[in-house]
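Fill-in record for superoxide dismutase.
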Amino acid sequence: MSRRESPPPPSPPPLLGVRGGEMEHEERPERVEPLSDAEREIIRDTWGRVYENCEDVGVSVLIRFFVNFPSAKQYFSQFQDMEDPEEMERSSQLRHHARRVMNAINTVVENLHDPEKVSSVLALVGKAHAVKHKVEPMYFKILSGVMLEVLSEDFPECFTTEVQMVWTKLMGAVYWHVTGAYTEVGWVQVSSSAV
């Protein structure tokens, strides 16, 4: 099994539960716990290393995501029929989307000091994925888990247990903001074939 073809990681406790192939409506917390100054610094420090290789890391994340969760490819007509990870790696469209994902995370990290900016950026991402692309919100949670797994494997020297916990908190906040945008636009699609 290559590093891109690991078994799917266990999902973190859900804000919107996925059980029996269907999303379960749970109460969304009123707000997300803010990151402390120390946590923001940990994220900025570790992200600096990751972002030096943002395209390659992003491609690794997306390939693992699509290999382990092939139903996610349904939203990408340009590479939904690709099965071979090496073919995915060569795809200019996949590389382009990997850059977009990593640049969005970079915008979040660069603006951790400005919660309004982070909220605004993630609202745009959430609304675009809900309205234009019709992507089920649980894929953001799955992608977050895959990203944390790849970062931990590719950067073991800086993704210690403490750092992983801080990044898990950040990804939870990202998911909270994105799902808030889905709620705001009246997202109603709840079934899924991803699990």
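KEY FINDING: The longest helix spans residues 161-184.
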